[in-house]
Amino acid sequence: MSKNIVAIDQGTTSTRCIVFDRAGSVVASDQKEHRQIYPQAGWVEHDPEEIWTSVQSVIAGALRQASLGPSEIAAVGIANQRETTVVWERRSGKPVQNAIVWQDTRTNAICGALASTMGIDRFRPMTGLPIATYFSGPKLKWMLDNTRGLRARAERGEVLFGTVDSWIIWNLTGEHRTDVTNASRTLLMNIHTLDWDEELLDALGIPRRMLPRIGPSSGLVGRVRPGSLLGEAVVAGAMGDQQAALFGQTCFAPGEAKNTYGTGCFMLLNTGDRPVASRFGLLTTLAYKLGNERPVYALEGSVAVAGALVQWLRDNLGIISHSAEVETLAKTVDDNGGIYFVPAFSGLFAPHWRPDARGAILGMTRYVNKGHIARAVLEATAFQTLEVLEAMEKDSGVKLTALKVDGGMVFNELLMQFQADLLNTPVIRPATAETTALGAAYAAGLAVGYWQDLDELRRNWKAQKTWLPRGNAAQRDELYAAWKKAVQRTLEWVA
């Protein structure tokens, strides 16, 4: 009987379930969007129960498409949007309030207070992270400080915290677990000990008993509860979505990197079994941990808004009806018309880390039309990626010879060609574009012996398309200088 791996990919805007075979090919998939809730400016929330409902729905859809029974499932892997913060009742399993999403900036004052005496790098030696609204710890502190009675309940052990992986694992198996990659994004885990750090917990006022147990990215998490469509399958892999994409791209050697173009844009560089401290605004994070093996670390450049800007163009301005139309509209003009769109809706992430920045369109004249705006929207993602790549090369001392890419935006030909031109580096899209789900599947499959080792996974990877750089250096320098000038204009907008 042929077995398959089931991967659950719970992202910022939608949830997918993808069934993979031994070659790493997609057998079946299903996807469902969920609501983005904006209670006020700067606040972004999700309904955890809606997310869990969507998980159940896509599992059913994918298994139905694949005509797959429980006995044909070798293991289940989970990839998830990171940093999004969920608190639920231990006894009932009900969330106490909406999840606070990674893009949310309501914790700006908390972060300011934490950084007031020692700066935003106060916790970087332990966590690899600056103090920023991005991470889960300040979001959890905000919940405890602002939800009546929640802190007392947390201290009594009545409520549990987790990122979205923990929320899904709890509902699937009843286990309160997370992995090192997700834990490394909380500002609560020491990246050297791979455990929750008492000094960090004290600084943020987080009761330890509400935290999940930290485990490897690939290893037995728990058996699915009775009565599930998954039968008695084991959950054997869990990774934050960007680390899962790195793993799915088979970037297993130091110096190998990938960039994911999704809601945000995330570039990760494998740095091997030692954390590399960033001097140029990047994050030092866990890349993955396989069972009892030594952990593998990465440098990461996180961009808050990439595909989300296309969605904003569609949903808020109504300039396009479907996200795919942005490329067609952008192709109606030959260039950006002199405008630059800096999408600092939630401040600027790497390499700037400026929560005081806000979005702006610069260089407007009467000549500019909606085609120029569409082109500037796409170019903003490429410019932000260049900023991150420059920082990554400075930190690592490695000059990238090619960039593996994945995510929904990599099917935009105009963007990918412009990205290759701007980086002056080949950009490579793999044959299996669903690398986030694939990474989660690989982690689970390795844990149960479905795949034997990393070399077998490397043999699965194949390139589908490569964009080679063209154009001239003078033009690239001129465009980039104008972009950096535009970025400076967005700073200090919020006091």
Molecular structure report:
The protein has 495 residues and is of the alpha+beta class. It has 16 helices and 23 strands. The strands form seven sheets. Strands 17-18-16-15-21-22-23 form a seven-stranded mixed β-sheet. It has a six-stranded mixed β-sheet with strand order 3-2-1-5-14-13, with helices on both faces. A two-stranded antiparallel ribbon has the order 4-7. Strand 10 and strand 11 (195-196) form a beta hairpin. The model has no long low-confidence stretch (mean pLDDT 93).
Topology:
Elements: E1 4-10, E2 14-20, E3 26-33, E4 45-46, H1 48-66, E5 73-80, E6 86-89, E7 99-100, H2 108-114, H3 124-127, H4 136-146, H5 150-155, E8 159-162, H6 164-173, E9 177-179, H7 180-183, E10 189-190, E11 195-196, H8 198-204, E12 213-215, E13 218-223, E14 234-240, H9 241-248, E15 257-261, E16 265-272, E17 283-288, E18 296-303, H10 307-315, H11 325-330, E19 340-342, E20 360-362, H12 370-396, E21 403-406, H13 413-423, E22 427-430, H14 435-447, H15 454-460, E23 463-467, H16 473-489
Parallel strand pairs: 1-5, 5-14, 9-12, 15-21, 21-22
Antiparallel strand pairs: 1-2, 2-3, 4-7, 6-8, 10-11, 13-14, 15-16, 16-18, 17-18, 19-20, 22-23
Helix pairs in contact: 9-14, 10-12, 12-13
